[in-house]
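Tutorial, part two.
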Amino acid sequence: MSIAQTFAKAKAENRSVLVGCMPAGFPTVDHSIEQMIAMHEAGCDVIEVELPYSDPVMDGPVIQRASDIALAGGVRTRDTLKIIEAVSSAGGTVVLMTYWNPVERYGVDAFARDLAAAGATGMITPDLIPDEAAEWIAAADAHKIDRTFLVAPSSTDERIAMTLDNCRGFVYATALMGVTGARTSVSSQAPELVARIRAIDPEMPVGVGLGVGNGRQAAEVAAFADGVIVGSALIRCVLEAPDRAAGLRDLRALSTELAEGVRR
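Running the prediction step on this input gives:
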């Protein structure tokens, strides 16, 4: 199912989409496949696979640590494509989140081609702005990959409008200034940012990320956003678990709690 179809289905059910994030290859390729399939089975509508990167400017300490573990284990772009293929084959709707440098190194059109072949339906590019994305936009169009750019509370209305014009599938609204990570409370800037986006384009689904860590917060964000994006809290389940079985159990439990939250 495409991202657009996933958001449309959730809207028809009068609820938000739950997007669960996990770095590829953390702690190993096989483990990450198992974890992402568990998240899908427990109620994550979309699995956001993060391509581990050595200089993740937007990621908080939890995602950085998980990405470092994956990189130390030798994960490569090819492994990430293999993971996407496995999760997609298990019925998951998959998007990739990646910094731009690995895409450029791989070859932009080849990357889009192989990403589509692996079964991903979209790609989120946190450090690529639409003004500099002509090559990616062309490749994404050619290979039918939805493209998601980011907007922040500091974005001007003009910048938001231009970003929305170049998004397809959904737009990623960062609810807080700064890096990612679960917070004790949801940012008050988030509802205002979503309202600004909707005033410019009422049809574009809005996913809100940065800060959600439990079902109550997921329900809070679901009350005003089309999608709730959760990363650090899910990753911590694996990072802090004493063993693989416990990590998987905690990951399923939190995914279920978050899925219930967006359905309240």
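Residues 177-183 have pLDDT under 50 and may be disordered. In part three we will examine how such features are distributed along the chain.
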